Structure formats: C-alpha cells, structure tokens
Give the backbone structure.
Amino acid sequence: MLSYAKMSKYKYPFYIVLHPNDGYQELKYNKKGSFRVSIIIVLLWYVSAVLNRQTLDFVFNPSRPEKLNLFMIAASTILIFTIAVISNWCFSTLMDGKGNLKDIWIVCSYALIPMIVTTFITIILSKGMILEEEVFLTYIKLIGVLWSAVLYFLSIQIVHDFSFIKTVNTILLTVLGMLIILFLFILIYSLFQQVIMFAGNIFYEIIYRFFSN
Amino acid sequence: MKLKTVLTSILVSLMLVQPVYAAEPYDGYTYNSYGEKVPAPNSYLPEKVVLGIDLGVGHFNKPMDLFKDKNDNIYILDTGNNRVVIMDKNFKLVKVINSFVNEGKPDVLKDARGIFVDNEGKIYIADKGNARVIVTDDSGNIQKVYGKPKTDLISDKITYAPRKVVVNTIGNIYVLSDNINQGMISLDKDGNFKGFFGREKVEATAQVLTEMFWRKFSTKEQIAQRNSFQPVEYSNIFMDNQDFIYTSTSYEATTKGQIKKINPKGTNTLDAKMQFGDLKTTGTAKTALIDVTSDSEGFIFALDKNLGRVFMYDQRSELLSAFGKNGDGVGTFGEPAAIESLEDKIMVLDDKKNELVVFSPTIYGKDIRKGIKLYEEGSFKDALDPWREVQKLNSNYEIAYVGIGRALQLTDDYTGAMKSFKLSNNRTLYSGAKLDYRSYILRQHFTTVVVGFLAVVLGIYYAIKYRKNIKRILLKKRKGDSINA
C-alpha cells in the first residue's frame, strides 16, 4: 500500500473519495488538507454547474443558453456552500465539535468531488445519447450525489469526532441554520435597499429645495 | 456654420424621401414553444370589403351569421333586416330572401342568429326571437318549423332560444340554444328530441373548489344567493363535410380546449389540454372565441371577439398564425360576429360596421398552407421547398424548422436535420435525428469503433491486472535511482 504521507496534496482528495474513513482520519490528525486545493474544488463545482447548464446536450437540456445568469449559478453553488460551512461551524461549535472553520471548509469541499466528476461524465456521455437513454444519465448523477452525501456525512462525523446520532442532528441543524442565514441575508438586503432609497430621496429633496429655481 | 446647413438639408431630404408602402392594418404574430409572442409576417391580408350597398340591397343591419354552401355560395343572415342575402363566390348578388311564407301566411324572422344550408339547398335558420328553427327553400317558402323540443330533460321554465344550427349528412339537426348548457340539442329529421351532444364539463378551477368548500358551511338560503357554476356554453358550432362538429367557447376564464372538434361519437379529436387563442394578453381583454370554421384542407380558423384576432390552426392544434385586429381602419373589425372560409380565403362578418371583410393569403400564408398540407399528407420531401420559403420570410418560425428537419432527415442529411430540429426547439425529433446520425457514424467507422473499443477495454483490464507489478517496477526504479544517487 502506498503511504499517504508521501502523497501530493493534489492527489490526496481522490484518495479520500475512495477511502473516506482512513482519508479523513489522516487528514484530521496529520493536517493533510490543503486550503488551496479546496478552493480549486469549489470553483470546479461552479464551473461544472455552468457547463452542465450550457453544454449538456440539447436533448437533455431544457435551459436556454442565451439566458445564462452566472451570478445565479454562483449563488446556488459557491454561496450555498459557504453558508452551509458557516452554519455547520456555528452549530458544531455549540455541540463541542473538534473542527475549526477552515477544517470544515476543507473536508466539505473534498466531499464535492464525486458530484463534480459525475457531472463532467454526464456532460460528455450526453453528447452521444438519445432521449430514451436518459435514465443512464440520471443514474450516474444519482450515484454522484449519493456518494457525495456519504462523504459529507463522514467528513462531518470525523472532523468533529461526533457519534452517528450527533452527526445526524448537526446536519439537520445545519439545514435549519442555512435557512436562518438566508432569511437574514434577504432581510439585510431589503433593509439596505430602503436605506439607500431613503438617502437618495433626501439628496433629491435637498437638490429640489435649495438648488433649483 | 456651413457644415450645419449641409447636415440639416441632408436630414430634411431624408425625411422627405421616406419610403412609401401600402401599410398593413395589423401585425401578424405567432407564439414560440416558450409561449412568447413572436412577430411574424402577415399570413392573411384584407383583400376587399363587401357592403350591402355594393350588392345593391341596401346596408346590412347587424348581420349575425355567415354560411358557405357546397357550391361556394355565401349566405349572410342579415339579422337586423330579418332577411337572408345570398351571393356567389365572386361576391355578386344571387338572391335576397326578404319575406317568408308559412303555409300560405306571411311570416317574419325575429332576432335570427344562425344559418345553415344543407346539401339539398334547404336553408335552416335559428330564429331566436321566435324560439324556433325553420327550414326554408331559397324563395322563402317555409317547409318545416322545429319548436322547443318536447322532453323531460328541458324544463318548461327554460326559455328556448336557438342561436346556432347545423345539420349532418343524414339529416340530424344539432341546435345550440341560450339557457341550455348541456351541449347541443340533437334532433332527428322529424324534430324528435334525441339527446344532448358534446356537453362541456365544469372545470375544477380554484374558484370552483373554494365555492364548493364554502357551500359545505352555508344554509340553503345562502346557497341560493350564491352564483352557481355551470358548464360553459358553446359560443358557436360549425359542421365540416365529414360530419365533424367544431365548437368554440367564448368564456374568457377557460384556459384550455376552447376549440373542439367533436366526432359523431361525441369525443374531441383536438388537443383538449391546449390553450387556444392568445396565451398572454396585456391589458384586461382576454381571448373570447365566438366562431370557428374549417376549410376544405383542414385548416381551422377561430375568431376572437375582444381583440378581433383570427387564429389559424392545423389539425394537430398547432397555432400557425394570428392576424387581424379591432379598429377603425379598412380591414379591421368593429365587432366581428362570424367567420367562414372560401377556397383559401377567409371571410369575417362584422355586425357593427355591417360589412363582410375578405382576407386572402399572402405569399407567406400560401407557403404555410402548402407546407402543412404536404406535411400532413406525409410527403415530407415535397414540403421542403415551401418550408424553405417560409423560413426565408420568418426565421423565427418553429413549425417551418420541423418541416425542413423532417425533409432533411429523409434525405439522410442528419446533421442538417439535427440543426433544424434544434432551431424548432423540438427535443423528441432532435433525438430521433441524433439516433440516425449515431448509427450512421457507427456504420461508417465500424472497424475503428470496434478496434478502439477493444483497445480501451483491454487497456483498462491489463492496467488493473498488472497495477501492482507496474508499481513495483516503478518503486524499484526509484529506489535504484536513489541508490545510484
């Protein structure tokens, strides 16, 4: 067996995908995780989502390429990921989790790899497939998502040193926390909008009152 | 300064030489597969307007119905003047039925709304004000009178008010009456009641469901005061030469299946889930189809009262084009009342302007007709040329791309077909063309594909089998390197 002490940081995420238990343990105790690699993975997730929307074969692709909105896709990938990590950090800290924010970010990003890989595989396979064969693509995607879900679960469990039940609870709370954070985001956004509008109104009021004749 | 004068003179001269063209009274459009309104060239343009005084019979007065018989004679039911005006297909007067004789006594119509002429030339008139349907010859001798049908299914309290009448080839009569919402009344030759035909169902809209909910908690007195939800009445009926009955619904809240084509068994052969008319309208006016007709080639034309649109459909319920509008100009409607086809032309009767507007197809419209006709016959290859012409004039027309794609697929131009189906936004057809293309590629490059496939499989197999050996060799080599170093 190849010792992972010698493994490069770019190869290590793939080792984790195939040996999640050992991989995450090793990552935690020997600090094998790399923040730079995790950033690359999250950006790749974003790229895969964009490519999936734009270049998945016409047969399986209901979206309109000319109506691309890069910010919306970024919001549904990078932003959601960030919120999930922060929310998880908030709750796991309360529940005596061992991982810090950077650790959680790194292990969670490594869990995305199966999803990204299967997305690229479906994009390539879709080029040669017809409508009746859509079920294959669906299954490949499903495998990717389930695999990622398992990795995510293990990563949370190992990085915080939680029991099974506690991990389930933390993940449920994480989802709740994400909703709260999103709600706050929207609230702050609309409040700021009103403040800006208010400032603008005052500005124009002063202009009309004192500087027009 | 000089430059300025030069520029202004250029501008002024540009304004003066604005191109002069015959303005079209309305803009044509269609809907694409996303339900968006897409501008299109006009498929039909007004050719002429026929007034009563042009025929020498004095102005029409609120004419309500229009009919074309099998010899292409046109019958106008001139409701306000209680007469029937008959023209030939060149809009020359043939006859006017001013007065009617019933068993020796003079008889007059009262608020007559519907007219039908059978193959023997007998004229059926739905005489709403007199609560009867009369059968007359073309000189006004009334041969038969059908009063209110005698049956327990129609209560005595209901005022019988026949609006429209059609007759099939064996002489069964279908009457559409106000106050009766069970569909059409079907009568046999002698006027005996046979039953209701093609009844509408009450749609389970949110409104109906909330009403049902509140009724559970209401007393009888309260229920009596609430509006009752009744099946939507048909606004008009039309019978084609194969005894299929087309119906239209003018109820604005109905959002699907406003046009039906009912076969003699009573089932609708058009797409009942399809929304006919305008899909989205700006403003309050929604589509209210008051008449429907079908020409000898199977094209369906429906008339919208609120916006004055004519919608052209094919037998697969696909919208081919929309044209016409309400307005004051020539070729627009005051209040359209009835629509009828004449060869490839369309006639619309206007009961406010008291005129008959005749539309004829443009080059674009003719090509669409040709394309659809060939397409429906199954001769896809012949349909290529008309569709190419249509596509030249309107590159946003998805139906044309379907036609082109089908033709290209049959001539083995698979990539062309795929491109065309993509433009028509039709994934099923695209997938079919892609399958053809894929098997074509596989056939062309059979050896390469098989050899390549085997090479990949064997490569993976041996890579897995000798993985450890390879690793060992590599490690040894590395160790050897380090020793050497």
